[in-house]
Amino acid sequence: MTASKTLRQRFADKEFITAPGVFDGISARVADRMGFPALYMTGYGTVASHLGLPDAGLASYTEMVSRVQTLASVTTTPLIADGDTGYGGLLNVQRTVRGYEQAGAAAIQLEDQEFPKKCGHTPGRRVIPMEDMVAKIRVAVESRDSADFLIIARTDARTTLGLDEALRRGEAYARAGADILFIESPETEEEMAKICASFDTPCLANIVEGGRTPVVSRDRLVELGYAMAIFPATGFLAMGAALASVYGTLKNEGASVGVTVPLDDFMDFSKMMGFQQVWDFDKRHAS
Questions:
Q1: Residues with Cβ < 8 Å from 208, sequence gap 6 or more?
Q2: pLDDT computed for residue 3 by the predictor
Q3: Where, by residue number, does the polypeptide cross the bilayer (predicted)?
Q4: Which domains are assigned to the chain?
């Protein structure tokens, strides 16, 4: 992973960061060409794409760090990677942070849910004691090799324990050294504004279409005080709808004639996936 400007520099320069969710090699390559300041490896989308399973603590550290390495290897845009709960205790957090950084991520997101964790906009989430998460953040900070590898601290306390508890946890996580605060699932714009007004540390908005948090414009996010927004589900929700439409046409018509979803040009898509390098290699080494 290379970039002309680090995420830390962008935050220092007060740039608003929009990060689309990527979840496999195709989505990562498509987004990487678009000029975003960052990409977000969504846990939900990655687990669904890689394993065909729900984001419910079923994927292991080994599986997820492999995904980080794959996505980072095919992109040049800084990659923010979902690290779930750190996959265990404090030693696991140390291993996770070091592994994600070595795999090429520019930042890791860690959350204070009990294991097994659940997707942030679904019911049934429970959080660990605040002091336990503070320890995880401290270990994460001391385990990274570079200060440019950012630690994102997420709390899921809002849904079950209320906004005040979520804010209390955010303050504690900031004191522990988190670079970015992620107060998950505020339910009104007023709550979103209160979150951003409560901290000097940059705040992240998680925008999930159909989720618990209002979906608002970029200008409104800036007005509310956010420094960054991730859109983890937008890509795979679009993909799901597009595939359902295309496969429906194939099922009903027995052919692709009549497909209404826009299709990429096959040769252009092949070049995006790296076939031009294959063709060039073959030419250089043709007998």
A1: 120, 121, 231, 232, 233
A2: 47
A3: 224-247
A4: 7-239 (3.20.20.60)
